[in-house]
Design a protein that fits this description.
With 375 residues, the protein is an alpha/beta fold. Helix content is 40%, strand content 15%. It has two domains: 122 residues, Aspartate Aminotransferase, domain 1 (Alpha-Beta Complex); 234 residues, 3-Layer(aba) Sandwich (Aspartate Aminotransferase, domain 2), CATH 3.40.640.10.
């Protein structure tokens, strides 16, 4: 009997396969198509002939952990104990799965804010828990009245995603204050903060849970080098959590993957000594600006993009079709692939929105925009 009987094929696979079939420009799946930083490639080449190919310690390569701790302190002023409060994971998705399966038991409830990334609910279901899907406000800000109304004696965990995929929304200070008040009232509830786009913010600075002393004792933060350094195929992420929580997470992690790619860890560790995350952010600001300017004369309405490398658009001026049908039509007839936003909702809420990924070469964005402005 299937543990996930109602889980379909990932929308990302569906749209990418359809794009390949019709030769469409793929702005659907969230991965860059531009080259990796040559400095990182050279570091990796130099490491290949060295003795870096055996297991690293279970919680991660010590030098990488040290560099992450330095990065966390530099950006968030949080001191992290690398031995007891940090764990290198096989991407953020494995980290998130591990966290959920460390704490969620049969009939425990997990609050998920829709639209939500598609890995959250299956991880809860595999753990035997009950996903409780709560819609964000129309502007994609959190609705704390709805969230509090959803909390019961069985609520174990709340998952937040900031900066937010798919909408590009970034939480404000007042929203974190509201979250602190809520979790102070419901102090048995844990928090999982998915912050994989933490170094890609535009309109205002990203506020990490790492900066919130009132939340840190009950929170796990998930981060991703795949997103931050645009090496998604390397599948290297990390978790930060207080020792009492990390102890339980490591119990599950050791029997899932034990340790992560040693070569990738060594390469990223050396690269962190020279990379400037501000430059990465500037690069994505440039790409967002380019893509938005290219679509100014189109019939697509562009929603605010405060962070991530995703641009959400409304197509009501173009078609009355549902977003899934229109996304397929966009591929087949117009040669551009996007993701329909309704797939990120439990009830398939359809507001005629699509998500484009602008983590692409300028040439790719220009070619896609040329097709989109003609619609």
């Amino acid at each position: 009997m299937s543990k996930l009987p109602n889980t379909p094929t990932s929308i990302f696979s569906i749209m990418s396969q359809l794009a390949n079939k019709h030769g469409a420009i793929n702005l659907s799946q969230g991965f860059p198509n531009f080259p990796v930083d040559e400095r990182l490639l050279n570091i990796t080449k130099n490491l290949i002939g060295k003795n870096v190919h055996q297991y690293t310690p279970m919680n991660g390569l010590p030098s990488l952990l040290e560099n992450i701790a330095s990065l966390t302190f530099k950006n968030y002023k949080r001191k992290v104990n690398i031995a007891s409060e940090m764990l290198i994971t096989a991407g953020a998705t494995q980290g998130i799965y591990t966290v959920i399966n460390s704490f969620v038991k049969n009939n425990d409830e997990v609050i998920i804010l829709d639209p939500s990334y598609d890995s959250y609910e299956p991880s809860v279901l595999v753990a035997g828990g009950k996903p409780v899907r709560i819609s964000l406000n129309d502007d994609y800000s959190p609705n704390f009245n709805r969230i509090e109304d959803a909390i019961t004696k069985n609520t174990k965990l709340i998952i937040i995603n900031n900066p937010h995929n798919p909408t590009g929304k970034i939480w404000k200070e007042s929203e974190f204050q509201a979250l602190e008040s809520l979790l102070e009232k419901h102090d048995r509830v844990l928090l999982l903060s998915d912050e994989v786009y933490e170094y890609i913010s535009f309109s205002h600075p990203h506020i990490s849970i790492n900066t919130r002393p009132k939340l840190r004792d009950k929170a796990i933060v998930a981060s991703s080098f795949g997103k931050s350094l645009h090496v998604t195929g390397w599948k290297v992420g990390y978790l930060i959590a207080p020792e009492k929580l990390m102890l339980e997470i490591k119990k599950i992690h050791q029997f899932l993957v034990f340790s992560i790619s040693s070569l990738s860890q060594h390469a990223i560790s050396e690269y962190l000594d020279i990379v400037d995350f501000n430059e990465i952010e500037k690069m994505y600001v440039s790409k967002r600006t380019l893509f938005q300017n290219l679509l100014k004369n189109s019939k697509f309405e562009l929603l605010p993009c405060e962070g991530t490398y995703f641009q959400v658009v409304n197509y009501k001026q173009i078609s009355t079709k549902g977003d899934m049908d229109f996304a397929k039509e966009l591929i087949v007839k117009h040669g551009v692939a996007a993701i329909p936003i309704s797939v990120f909702y439990k009830d398939s809420t359809d507001k005629q929105m699509l998500r484009f990924c602008f983590a692409k070469t300028d040439e790719t964005l220009i070619a896609a925009a040329e097709k989109l402005v003609k619609i």
